[in-house]
Amino acid sequence: MPQDLDDWKPKLLGYAEQAAQDDGAHDLNHLHRVWKTAQRLLADHPEADALVVLAACYLHDIVNLPKNHPERTQASMMAARVACAKLEQDGFPVEKLDGVRHAIEAHSFSAGIAPLTIEAKIVQDADRLDALGPVGLARLFYTAGRMGSALAHPDDALGEHRELDDRAYALDHIEVKLAKLPASMQTAAARRLGEAQLQWLRGFRDTFIADWS
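RE: above sequence
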């Protein structure tokens, strides 16, 4: 890892630890996983600024509002402001702050902000990949439990004869949101990974429904 990344990573982790909340779906391990995935994507994009990506990966949830919070769509912009204020105070390269700000703002699905830089695209992809596959499944049910959702509809778990509602039924979230993520990925590597992880989730869903029914 380049020296500037080695120097900044413990500082960024310290900021994240100070802001950590009681949310196992957005904990420090989530940040580590997002950075690990981002490094895989960076391998295909040597033109990207790795320090900008590192900072955004570790600070994108420094303001984290619950899924059902009325200001949820503003959380990434709040996080960007807090993150950049801390970075500027600690001497982060000023010419990189706008890149970090945009990457944090654009990472959020609910904010609907299009990523315009390769760094923002990598951070968005890495964060969304953590919502798929086995870890994404665990995060899905953890979050649903915190929100008081049922596991699945008692009589129509697939939603063949009703409108899907992932606020009420956790399993619905796979098709309501997660199934859309691979196509929204900004990098080719993330699209490939996302499709594979989505197929895993759908395989789980089918097995679950067989037992549920």
